[in-house]
Amino acid sequence: MTEELDRLAEAYGISPGYVSEAGTYQRVSERAKRGILAALGVAAQTNDEVASSLAAAPAPEPHEMAGPAGIRCFVPGWLRRGRTWGITCQLYGLRSHRNWGIGDFEDLARLAEWAGACGADFLGVSPLHALFLADPGRRSPYSPSSRRFLNPLYIAVDKLRGAPRPDPRAVAAAREAALVDYITVGEIKRTALAARFDQFQREDLARRSENALLFEAFCGEHGEALELFARYEALSHALVSEAYSCGWHAWPEGCRSPAGHAALCFARDNPARVLFHKWLQWIADGQLADTQRRARAAGMRIGLYLDLAVGVAPDGADTWAAPDTVINGVHIGSPPDAFNTLGQDWGLCPLSPRALRERDGAAMAATLRDLMRHAGAIRIDHVMGLVRLYWVPAGFCATDGAYVGYPGDILMRQLVSTSLKHSALVIGEDLGTVPTGFCNIMRSAAIQGYRVLYFERSKDGRFRAPQSYARAALACISTHDLPTLRGWWKGRDISERERLGLSDAATAEPQRRERARDRRLLLEALRRAGLAPEETTGVGAGAAFAELPDAVLIGLHTYLARTRSRLVAVQLEDLVGMEDQANLPGTVDEHPNWLRKLPVSLEHLVQCEISRRVVGAVAAQRPRVS
């Protein structure tokens, strides 16, 4: 029966096994296959069900990785042989003297103008996708309600003509807090935006002003997708006020579908509430477009570099509006590896491979179009998802998952064509378990890879020399899921995992010894490159410094800037000396994920000596040349 189960799984794109990150072949358990088949609506819990389902199964669908022959994603002419650099940040964490307790699009535009003046060509942000406005506490940008629309909390309300002024004491308290208070910020902003929308209705819509015509054009352009998203948002807010969850899984039966009787009645009886959420998207879209315009005007040749999450929350707007395009009952995750021995369950709902093939990748194409509208570059989180995703059946451990194939030929074609249409560079985050041959596919499609300094090692553990880095890639020191440079140097991530019980002393102590060795190896790499400060040349110097010397911080950024990689990204957190990382994988509320603000405001950033020295060093290695 194992052979028949394998054949049935293969018919539905489920791989019988995979090559792990360590290079060993791992067979998928029968339990995982049966769980995924159940999510696909295929009966396979007993041997008789397997036999019956196999008799009715379709022929195995092809899951080609190759993109369209001879067609490549957009790469600007000046970058094909050249190199450049930029800055990455967490938008929510930006501080300024004018924002309302959370970074906003005006902050982003001002940061872009400063970075552009310093010689940067792009400004990258974590996903700006719509989350759950009715419950701002659901804050992870990588677990969105919708990937097609924007988070209204990033609207700079003070930049809206006629917007009411909130209680200055409440705003000051939210602005000065060390962490983003999403609940308070959400209440303040939503109240002010609702009041401004009422004014828009009374004045612009009633008089058919130019703004009203632009708004109507925006609604027409986004059509049914915007209508359903706005209905979801309005209904979610109404039900939360009645003590329901913001996500549709816990809603009354008649509300769990756009076609449900209660959902239809709500939309009919509350047109203004639905229209409000369309208006929020129009405002957010306009401010994002203005941010890109200002970035380019500041000299940036790429401008905004926007991030695409690998999936969506199972109970969000995208799954509610188009349930036939997703697969419920499974989550996207990753198999066990050296960093996560139990694997990972990211809690995200995957798109349906069959629906993508039958509809020529329409769902992904629409998402890509919306993302590239105001971006000079995009980053695709877990880019391997274009050809396969690791599915974990709901309620199972992440070790009991399997890879499921996707129509890579269709998705790659849609990606390439959308990139060319919008002149948007594509960067693929290819860390983790990468399928054999996928790197070649990325190169042939001109998708830039992702290279993190911490991981760029030779077999003996030494850090790679700058000239050995991949050319078609973005190089960086760290990411939002990894420790900042100062945090890595001090082993802050090791201590935090031990404090939270994610590891014990028996595990942490060897990790600390290894980190001390890595510090020495990193200083050796700087010495080989002629970039090591004099005070670090002594025997055992790497372990001797409890704090990261500023000279080493500058040296490492110079080292990275010397790499062959087309793109280099400097983390804003490293520029201002932060120790704690934005997100600690494996935690939700135990660690302040997606909450930390920068320790300095944008107004003070331009006066920060170490920031100026770092960006000056990087810009000197990568000057703008045509």
Structure write-up:
There is one protein chain. With 626 residues, the protein is an alpha/beta fold. It has a domain at 466-620. It has 23 helices and 16 strands. The strands form four sheets. Strands 13-10-7-4-3-16-15-14 form an eight-stranded parallel sheet. The chain has a four-stranded antiparallel sheet with strand order 9-8-11-12. It has a two-stranded antiparallel sheet with strand order 1-2. Helix 8 (210-240) crosses helix 10. The N and C termini lie far apart (63 Å).
**Radius of gyration using CA atoms only:** 25 Å
> How much strand?
5-15%
Decide which structural class fits the backbone: alpha/beta
Helix content: 40-55%
Could you tell me the mean pLDDT? 94
End-to-end Cα distance, whole Å, is: 63 Å
Largest sheet descriptor? 8 strands, parallel
Number of helices: 23
Question: Which tags fit this structure?
Answer:
626 residues; alpha/beta; 8-stranded parallel beta sheet; 4-stranded antiparallel beta sheet; 23 helices; 16 strands; 43% helix; globular
